[in-house]
Amino acid sequence: MSRKSREANLRKRVAGIVKSVFNPIIDKQRVIYKPSLKELIQRKIKVRGGRHVCYVCKKPREVEFALLKHHISYFPQVCCYVHFDCHMKIHDPDKPILELIDYNEGDSRIFYKLMEKQTNVQTA
After folding, report:
1. Are strands 68-73 and 78-82 parallel, antiparallel or unpaired?
2. For the CA atoms of 6, 11, 14, 18, what is the dihedral angle to 10 degrees?
3. Which residues of the chain fall below pLDDT 50?
4. Which residues contact 19 (CB under 8 A, 6 or more apart)?
5. pLDDT for res 72
6. How many other C-beta atoms lie within 10 A of the C-beta of residue 88?
7. Where are the chain's structural domains?
8. What pLDDT sits at residue 57?
9. SS3 51
10. Is 73 in contact with 102 (CB distance < 8 Å)?
11. Contacts of 109 by beta carbon, 8 Å cutoff, 6+ apart
């Protein structure tokens, strides 16, 4: 599969996300503004809280362990830093912390595919 066809397939998969995130001007037949993969990945990341205090429990990071970066949203990127145990609480199947999960199923796969593609383009 050629690079152009792979990119076209990827654009089709993220079309709904792109429309909602970037609010493109839509003509009845076509999207006038199409953000590039570079724009999708290199948007400014919003960070809630800081790198040294857990956003969930508000306790400082442990000396021997860094806090994990948790994506609250992928499109646009909104992150916070949390302890590993607090991250497990966020994604607890019985009682998740829904305020810290603002994305659809599959968004992470799309995001990391775009990141991989952007990395491959930069190193080529």
Report:
1. antiparallel
2. 150
3. 17-32
4. 26, 31
5. 94
6. 10
7. 3-123
8. 96
9. coil
10. yes
11. none
Q: Provide the whole-model pTM.
A: 0.62
Place of tokens 């830093």: 81
What whole-number distance in Å separates Cα of residue 8 and Cα of residue 21? 19
Helices 3-13 and 15-22: crossing angle, nearest 10°?
Answer: 60
Q: Is 10 helix (H, G, I), strand (E, B) or coil?
A: helix
Q: Are 41 and 118 in contact, with CB atoms under 8 Å apart?
A: yes
Question: Helices (DSSP H) in the chain: which residue ranges?
Answer: 3-13, 15-22, 37-41, 84-90, 107-123
**Which residues have a Cβ under 8 Å from the Cβ of 36 and sit 6 or more positions away?**
none
**pLDDT on residue 5:** 66
Q: Looking at residue 31, what DSSP letter applies?
A: B
- pLDDT tens for 74-85 read 888 899 999 999
